[in-house]
Amino acid sequence: MPLSPFIWLAVAAVMAVVEIASLGLITMWFVVGALVAFVANLLGFDLFVQVVVFLVVSVLCLAVLRPVFVKYRDRGKQEEPTPVGQIAVVAEAIDNDRLVGRVETPDHMTWAARSADGMPIPAGENVVVVGQESVKLIVERKPS
Fold this sequence. Notes:
Distance between the termini: 86 Å
Strand order of the largest sheet: 1-2-3-5-4
Strand content: 15-25%
Number of helices: 3
Mean pLDDT: 89
Radius of gyration: 28 Å
Helix content: 40-55%
Structural class: alpha+beta
Shape: rod-shaped
């Protein structure tokens, strides 16, 4: 009994759904392979040839085209600017024990802050941003 060509369309649909869910640019090449195997089925090739065509086209597309697409996809990405290394002014006294403290960076952004050495830092003091944990800056007193 010959394989229905719609099996290859079902494989393509499943791979497309997996790609949409993952956005990894991996299973989309198996969609291409399944569509080429679908055409091979319509042309009357036997199951063995269809499976070989599916695997060869899928792996070839994965190996050759994925790097190009990943490079194109990542081309527009830019890293977020970081305030690490900048001088900031303590806007609200920093006290790690009370979990309070805010600093203002030169771009007039205020950030939650904590002291790198755990010592309190009074408002108005200049500090150096030495690290960042999500939206909280780690600061230390600016050397005189």
